[in-house]
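Ex. 9. Protein: Carbonic anhydrase.
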Amino acid sequence: MSQLQSNAAEDLINANERWARDVIKHDPNFFKDSATYPQRPKVLWIGCSDSRVPASVVTASMPGDIFTHTNIANQFHSFDDNANSVLSYAVDPVGVKHVVLVGHSVCGGAQAAIQAAEEGPVEPHNPLTRWLVPLIQLVRTLDLHGLPENEAVDKVVEANVLKQVENICLSEPIVSAWATGNNVSVHGWVYDLATGRIRELVVRSPPRANL
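Predicted structure tokens for Carbonic anhydrase:
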């Protein structure tokens, strides 16, 4: 096992070499153009750090197609300068037209939040617990009584996606963008690990676009 683990990083480098050669074979100027011209993705993906949900892979996208930000349990906190700076940069100057907040089934962050909510008062004694406090508070507003574990997790995942979409829509970058006529839309998606499919829960557009 230790030998397999020690080779993991080297395997990635070797895989990268094969991938780069394949890309060049199909488009000899791809990397040259990528290095020469500024990025112009149309989508910002805000997702979970879970290794089973790689944005580019599950959407069959190429480098330059998706601007990404990930964290534990796909959160968007108003106090998180990291996420807010990514959103701000993506909207302007990058110019994305769609912000997608992506949760996923069998989410470890959702499972941890459910467990913490059941155990009583939260003692944010480590970075992970502190990060999950808003999600734990959200879990406590949901009626999960009597649900099987998988259904409870699914309910939390969906509620979390809807809450984070709301947080994004209330964020300074989106409020400012909408106020100045930028019609960037905000989507809430759930990725199903068991099927590899994405399902849209909600899409929000500038208020005037709904008139």
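Check your answer against this statement. The chain has two domains: 1-37, 39-210.
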